[in-house]
Amino acid sequence: MRAHYDFSKMKGRKNPYIKNLKQPVTMRLDCDTVTYFKSIAEEMGIPYQSLINLYLRDCAMRNRKLRMKWAS
Predict the structure, then answer these.
(1) Could you say which of 44, 45, 50, 64 would form a disulfide bridge with 59 (CB–CB 3.0 to 4.6 Å)?
(2) What's the pLDDT band for 5 if we cut at 50, 70, 90?
(3) Distance CA 49, CA 6 (A)
(4) What region, left, alpha or beta, does residue 45 occupy, with left being phi > 0 and alpha being psi -120 to 50 degrees?
């Protein structure tokens, strides 16, 4: 290996995968909800954050809307 490399003549290019990066967000979730996703994620062998992301992505792709009725 060389002691010094000259990168000044290299042509830079933009990261082609930049559009696939995830955006960090902060969410407050019920303990029961986190426990539920953690148990399913453990069965499937994936991180629970990835499982929540997959579920939310599926909801977004299928245009699912939450149906709720408030008690009056």
Answers:
(1) 64
(2) confident
(3) 41
(4) left
Cα radius of gyration (the chain)? 21
For 31-49, b/e burial (b = at least 16 CB within 10 A) is eeeeeebeeebeeeeeebe
Q: How far apart are CA 51 and CA 44, in angstroms?
A: 9
Rounded Cα–Cα distance for residues 34 and 42 (Å): 12
Residue 35's identity, in one-letter code, is T
Domain boundaries, the chain: 29-61
Cα dihedral 44, 48, 54, 60 sign: positive
The reply to whether the predicted model has a pTM over 0.90 is no
Written as six digits, the tokens of 44 are 């499937």
- From residue 59, give the alpha-carbon distance in Å to each of 41, 52, 53, 54: 18, 11, 10, 9
